[in-house]
Amino acid sequence: MLRNIALILLSSFALLLFRDVVVTYGTYLKVEKSIEQALDAAIVAGTKEIDNQRGGLKVDVDAAREALRVSLIQNLNLNSEMANDLLHGSTLDVYLKYSGEIPRIEAQFDTRIDLIAGKWLGLSVWPLTVKKHTPYLSEFI
Fold first, then answer.
1. 90-95 long-range CB contacts below 8 Å, 24 or more apart?
2. How high is the pLDDT of residue 140?
3. For residues 25 and 4, what is the distance between their CA atoms, to the nearest angstrom?
């Protein structure tokens, strides 16, 4: 009888640990895809079509940053504090870097994921960091 109870407890812990791993990995994939889509929105919002047609690519960093933030909040169903039932303590950093004269928008999203089995091991949250940048460098001559 004691052996069966120990086996049930061990199985329960393994199932909760598996749940934590699946949720963490799934969240990482969802955040990564959401940031990629938000970067596209930032490029569209931060550039003006008339400038592109004239051969110059200028990015309005403030417009791009706000579009990226709004798109990420909508894609991940976050509140205004960038938190939901699973994610909390989230921060978003947006950078504009240049390779010569060619701009590249980079974003870093840091958050924490609540764990269930991790609490038993003394780890109640898992920090998650996703860094993405525009997948291409645009050249306009």
1. 92/68, 94/42, 94/61, 94/64, 94/65, 94/68, 94/69
2. 41
3. 31
Alpha helices by DSSP H, listed for 55-121, are 61-76, 117-120
User: Any bridge partners for residue 55, and if so which?
Assistant: none
β strands within the chain, DSSP E: 87-99, 102-114, 125-133
pLDDT digits (tens, 9 = 90+) for 104-137: 888 999 999 988 888 888 888 899 999 988 765 5
Give the residues across from 88 on adjacent strands.
Answer: 112
Cβ density class 14-51: b for 16+ within 10 Å, e for less:
eebbeebeebbeebbeebeebbbebbbbbbebbbeeee
**pLDDT tens digit string along 33-75?**
999 999 888 888 877 765 556 666 677 788 889 999 999 999 9
Token couple for 48: 């003006």
